[in-house]
């Protein structure tokens, strides 16, 4: 596998195509062709404003299983050392790690009704993949629904020009939850994505893709039929859709969303659009059925095939999206993301497969804007226009231009989300579970420079938004610095203590004492350091302070006294915050157990199945455990504890060393040399009962 010279751009375009397709198709997901034509006619742009979802409120960017599943399940590769020996069982374990039951990623439609819900229950019961997704266990109808196809694009993105690898990995991933025709359809999509890096002819792309599936499969015959209809009449896609509905429609297959009819619409739209992104989106969305899923697969394939030019010459597909996407999982620090950031993760994995190290542009900056059009979630709040442009003096380098026009005493502002933004608090459908990406005491750095043609100096500074009283947003800003025409500066600001409130956005403010207009370029923005922060109930009333903890427990209450009350009826529950970037730190809390089997505090949490935890168990034991493909007790000893009495627990992690204290007494100090977890957030742990605490503190060890 050789990386094409424009590999990064093509991956980025594929991700953009995927998320744009989802956002176009989601408002009428499940509608028929007839319903769509009667309500909208042919779909030629986002219809959100015609369904009370105005684009100006950014509600086009929503949580969606197609997006969150695609980029979450692919993490199995990096979680298992980027090894091509990755097994279906390990991908299944990735499901258990990241999916929060009844809350994230999947359609929770019930056993035997939702394929993915059925499979999640199989995995939870200890049935390993690929048996978990087999039709022998789940029936042919359940096993051949659409889910494997909608989550599969990423396996093609990490295998540019190598459809053999892409389809092999796709088979392993698809077999966690599906079987039969569902796997064949997923393999075709993965092959098309992988081969589109090096081949643009649609017929040759399909010729390659079908070599990976059985010639006697329905999927193979479906593709042959559509190609035959297209060869006979390459213009009338409406007539072809009618033929597809008659021969392969929903009435011919069981279940709620079978793969065959929807796979057919993907192939049909690719052929009849002749590879034009906008035309393909019109066709695949107007055809109906599982519109967001089908439009997303088509968008990814054509994004890779056409590169960023796919989005030129037609409607403004990229503007309303602004690169944003949400990945709500048990790893809440990855929930707020963007297309360029996910591109960086994919490039890291793809190079690691070949034992190569890839470094993100501009020394690994979080926001680097290095590909054309990338804004990474930044939006102009007032008196400002944003555009990704080449660096004025280094054309191979790209920056974000902030074009301001302000009156005396006014300011211009550009922000990007770091937590649940205001428009996403009460998102319909899948709720946005997320932990902030930025915390108090972390140091934010930004590199900016002013255009030489600016007429006068201005003031620039870092500014953040948080949730205050009744969750109304408030602003805090760092020290402002003067920026003269042609001058370059680095802003640096340590985020202050916010009294328990989460940071929801970060960005750049521009101001002047007199009327001014001009252009400032944002080269990079990033932050580092382990936070020094105490999580507590803020003095001002509100709810968002608590939502910075991802709830993977049965109940997470604050109405009855303690700020953090965790209740778990069966098994073990966690409430989690923090990010993978947290590495060496200490976490402590005074936790009170109330009728509980075991409880404690966890560090370096990477989901529900990857963490270190200090646990008090059975009223007579304290132990240090590691959760990773099962649970290992690293150390334990006798320890009598009582219900209703608070215990001060503390864990410190430094490299591979873990230390743990109870009530100020050091009980354990061990070195983990076997696949140590080197980064992650924190969690309160509760097993079958109730615990409570008012504060959880994180500091630099």
CATH class of the largest domain: Mainly Alpha
> Which blocks of ≥5 consecutive residues have pLDDT under 50?
none
CATH topology of the largest domain: ADP-ribosylglycohydrolase fold
Beta percentage is 25-35%
Which short descriptors sum up this protein?
701 residues; alpha+beta; ADP-ribosylglycohydrolase fold; Jelly Rolls; 3 domains; 14-stranded antiparallel beta sheet; six-stranded antiparallel beta sheet; 29% helix
Describe the structure.
With 701 residues, the protein is an alpha+beta fold. It folds into 3 domains: 7-326, Orthogonal Bundle (ADP-ribosylglycohydrolase fold), CATH 1.10.4080; 359-528, Jelly Rolls; 549-699, Sandwich (Jelly Rolls), CATH 2.60.120.560. Helices cover 29% and strands 27% of the residues. The chain contains 21 helices and 27 strands. The strands form 4 sheets. Strands 14, 15, 16, 17, 18, 19, 20, 21, 22, 23, 24, 25, 26 and 27 form a 14-stranded antiparallel β-sheet that branches. A hairpin with a 7-residue loop joins strand 4 (384-390) and strand 5 (398-406). Helix 1 runs antiparallel to helix 18 (291-306). The chain is globular. The two termini are 43 Å apart.
Provide a compact summary of the structure.
This protein is an alpha+beta fold.
Q: What's the structural blueprint in terms of helices and strands?
A:
Elements: H1 7-25, H2 33-39, H3 65-73, H4 75-79, H5 88-98, H6 115-124, H7 135-138, H8 140-143, H9 147-150, H10 153-157, H11 163-174, H12 181-195, H13 202-209, H14 218-232, H15 237-248, H16 259-272, H17 277-286, H18 291-306, E1 324-326, E2 336-338, H19 339-353, H20 361-364, E3 379-382, E4 384-390, E5 398-406, E6 411-417, E7 443-450, E8 458-467, E9 473-477, E10 481-483, E11 488-494, E12 503-511, E13 516-528, E14 533-535, H21 544-547, E15 550-552, E16 555-557, E17 564-577, E18 585-594, E19 598-605, E20 610-617, E21 621-628, E22 631-638, E23 647-654, E24 657-662, E25 665-671, E26 681-693, E27 696-699
Helix pairs in contact: 1-18, 1-19, 11-12, 12-13, 12-18, 14-15, 14-16, 15-16, 16-17, 16-18, 17-18
